[in-house]
Design brief:
The protein has 316 residues and is of the alpha/beta class. It folds into 2 domains: 154 residues, Rossmann fold (3-Layer(aba) Sandwich), CATH 3.40.50.1370; 144 residues, Aspartate/ornithine carbamoyltransferase (Rossmann fold, 3-Layer(aba) Sandwich), CATH 3.40.50.1370. Helix content is 43%, strand content 14%. The protein has a 5-stranded parallel beta sheet, sandwiched between helices. Helix 10 links the parallel strand 8 and strand 9. The radius of gyration is 19 Å and the shape is globular. Bound molecules: aspartic acid. The site of aspartic acid has 8 residues, from helix 7.
Length: 316
């Protein structure tokens, strides 16, 4: 078993690319640190455990894909820890427009020597290479269709907070599982933490059995909602589709709306990683439902990401 110092050293070198980089002990430490940050923020409007050694650190947030929650919560986490975030968004005002590759962009930003990187990109061999070879720790803020480790951490943290524990809880992913990095990362993390997972997806959105094994696929949304403790709705990831999806069939059979959630228990929770598209995978009624924890997920993202930054960059 690794001791805390060894874990910190490990994370200092490697950062976080995939949930499989984490062991159970590290996840427990991150959740306990995140809870401490949350309690102190709720009571004192600041992180009392703020570590002065972080005040001189700078973190480069490098986003080759669009983001709202992940970028904003990482920036907020940096601010509350006293870290200075510097954000690069690959838009038409950068040298990406002139033909510079993502890897060359990262290597140039590396030359400026931030203390760590937070990177979001589509599948890109150069970016993957940078994660492996960077002298500075790199944290994934989402990579391609398979990896979004900090979203999985904040979702698991929220489930634990709302339902008391993760072990034995039943989570169903509803919708476009195949193209969702959130679903892939959540599935690996939640199974490792002892949860049961299932999907409820149309054929075109079902993940590959080689990735998901024999996980149950509920054909009827009603049965899925009757079974679960957590219903996680997923956006239709059109930007990753090669052919046009049959949206009307999807809406008719898989949308969460006032009528379709009739079989969901009062004790269950409804999650969504955002961004949600109203009247596609979810309706406004569901956003307002008392079982819905979407904004709690977003808030917890700050505490969980702060815990990770503290682990990666702090002295402890
Ligand atoms: N924000 C999440 C992601 O980056 C989910 C989504 O875009 O639907 O994967």
């Amino acid at each position: 078993m690794l001791n805390t110092a060894a874990i910190v050293a490990l994370m200092k070198n490697s950062g976080l690319f995939s949930v499989t980089d984490l062991n159970i002990q590290t996840i427990g430490q991150l959740f306990s640190l995140a809870s401490q940050f949350k309690h102190s923020f709720v009571r004192h409007k600041q992180f009392l455990r703020r570590n002065e050694s972080l005040s001189y650190k700078s973190v480069a947030l490098v986003f080759f894909e669009s983001s709202t929650r992940t970028r904003f919560s990482f920036e907020m986490a940096c601010n509350r820890l006293g870290i200075r975030p510097v954000t690069f968004i690959a838009n038409s005002t950068t040298s990406i427009k002139k033909g510079e590759t993502a890897l060359d962009t990262l290597l140039n930003l590396h030359a400026v020597q931030p203390d760590a990187f937070i990177i979001r990109s589509d599948e890109d061999e150069g970016v993957r290479e940078f994660f492996k070879t960077s002298q500075k720790p790199c944290i994934s803020a989402g990579y391609g269709k398979f990896h979004h480790p900090t979203q999985a951490l904040l979702d698991a943290f929220t489930i634990k907070e709302r339902l008391g524990e993760i072990k034995g809880k039943k989570i169903v992913f509803i919708g476009d599982v195949r193209h969702s990095r959130v679903a892939h990362s959540n599935k690996s993390l939640l199974l490792a933490l002892g949860a049961e997972v299932a999907i409820c997806s149309p054929k075109d959105f079902m993940p590959s059995p080689s990735e998901w094994g024999e996980v149950e696929n509920f054909e009827q949304l009603t049965s899925a909602l009757d079974w679960c403790d957590v219903a996680m709705s997923l956006r239709v990831q059109k930007e990753r589709h090669s052919t046009k999806a049959d949206l009307s069939n999807f809406i008719q059979n898989y949308q969460l709306n006032k009528k379709s959630i009739g079989s969901l228990s009062d004790k269950a929770i409804i999650m969504h990683p955002g961004p949600f598209v109203v009247d596609e995978e979810i309706t406004r009624d569901i956003v307002k439902d008392s079982r819905t924890v979407i904004h709690q997920q977003v808030e917890n993202g700050v505490y969980v990401r702060a815990a990770l930054l503290q682990k990666v960059l702090g002295d402890r």
